[in-house]
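Re: the 647-residue chain
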Amino acid sequence: DQNMVLPEVIPQSVLFGNPDKAEPKLSPDGSQYAYLANSEKGVLNVYVQALDAAEAAEAKQITNDTHRGIRSFEWAKNNKCILYLQDADGDENWHVHAADLQTGVVRDMTPFQGIRADDLYTDQKFPDEAIVGLNIRDRAAFDLYRLDLTTGALVLYTTNPGSVSQWVCDADFKIRGAIANDQSDGSKILKVRDSDKGDEWRDIAKWPNDETAAFYRFTPDGSGIYIATSMAHSKGEAKDTTRLVILSTVDGSEIEELFFDPRCDIDQVIFNDVDHIVEAVVVDFEKQQWIVQNDRIKADIESLQAVCTGTLRITSRTTDDSCWIVADMRDDGSPRYFHYTRADKKCKLLFLARPELEKYTLVKMTSHVIDTSDGEKMVVLRTLPTGVEAVKLPMVLLVHGGPWARDHWGWNAQAQWLSNRGYACVMVNFRASTGYGKRWLHLGDGQWGATMQQDLTDAVAWAVKDGIADPTRVAIMGGSYGGYATLAGLAYTPEIYCCGVDIVGPAHLRTLLQSIPPYWAPMKKMLTLRVGDVENDDALNRKCSPFYHAQKMVKPLLIAQGANDPRVKKAESDQMVSAMHKVGTAVEYILYTDEGHGFARPQNRVDFYLKTEKFLEKYCGGRCGPEEPEQIKGNSAQVIDPASIIL
């Protein structure tokens, strides 16, 4: 009996409740740090703590969110306030809030109903200002406003010249770069201007839809711009993966190549915020790898890598760069945060995000390069239970969202939960995943439910052939695109899976693309080129949309949806549940009334995973953890009767 040998059960709340503390960030002057932690009501808020031991009084809660919780914040460069984004119940219409450390006053700096704040820029040379993008004039376009953090005044600064989806600041905190999306062919255009005083935008480079580009910042003197690109620009060679280069802001020609890895795209570029020099490049083929580009941080990274055994991330640096806070995301332990002083190379543990995890047995994640059935190489990540022989285990194929995203080796609460319950967990960087070059990305174009799905089938076949998975007990689960892949798996390859769990997944590709939020308009052509022209091609839409294949979906399905999801609307799940009900297939449908594209509130997350593990236990044969009535109090789950849905 597996229960005899699997380790102690980890309660859901320890994995999926709010962290104890998270995301610490140093104040620019280094005197204190802010972090996220629970208020008395159990809602994530921002706290500030002095660093000096003599002054280290109680941490002070400086925000007062009472429902949804704050998930990201940053220091204003004046050390006086914390800036954070918040939406209403998952609608993704973010507002910028400023919490004043002295007065305790929290202000909504962008108090416009139905308006979304996008892009927030700060600069240490302009400590009392921020630049923020708002779609006030046109819901589909973000114009930039200068925000005075003292008075709260918002002044229109730069009008969107059309279809701009990203902006680039120069070293003087002027917006001089813009990335526009061409709606005729899905290409990206880099525009620059010589100053922000009425100069015209000039197009200096263009990337067709099948090329890759990432835009970072201007060189210190503004004559060049740092870009990761798959193309040749006058000199240099076009490659499958991206090269880090400097392009001239005069004519877009290549000034210098700084870095290239033939295996994978550039994952991150680490810059110094004072002189805007590239200090390191991070790539991730099977695991994260740092390649230092400037000797001044070489010893620092070596010191940190001696302490950090997982994925390393610098969360913040002081203005004078004397101190950093770093995150260590281990695959088999709670995320850890360290305060690092550069002068003596000392690393002091600040806290564990989830100290409760220390009581439990966690497991390693391993990466593997496998062959697909059509002869491609593909990276998969595997997490196996400990204490039982890894032979013919029940398995959950956990499919990432996007799909133009990827899974990374490191801390993953879902993988730990599944392995703790006795499942082999397999995650796949299937074609269309990012990070592995333009060819692998675009092999997925027009392949939803086709070769992208075959890659998932191939990963299951690999696990079965390897002996770890029982072919009669393989479940498929995922969110967003992963939810689509779950529906597609049950529709197109029902013989492979015993059941499926779909979280906010689209069921009908035409209605998905017809109902995107207005501010996705600049990306619309790219979506059509990558997904396929399902709005006009009826045969393609019927072929790729699981909604039309309900009669083949004979395996049990659990669907969870956020009522306010702006990306994959509730109507997507409603359509699927209704279609399955009409053909007589059992489907469990849970609606979270105060959530969006994923579940932010801990009581909803814990409730969802409790329901999911009961479902998986019933159909796939793992085990369940304890009921946690206290942890799910106040959740918004509604179990919807499929017969009640009116389309």
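The chain has a mean pLDDT of 95.
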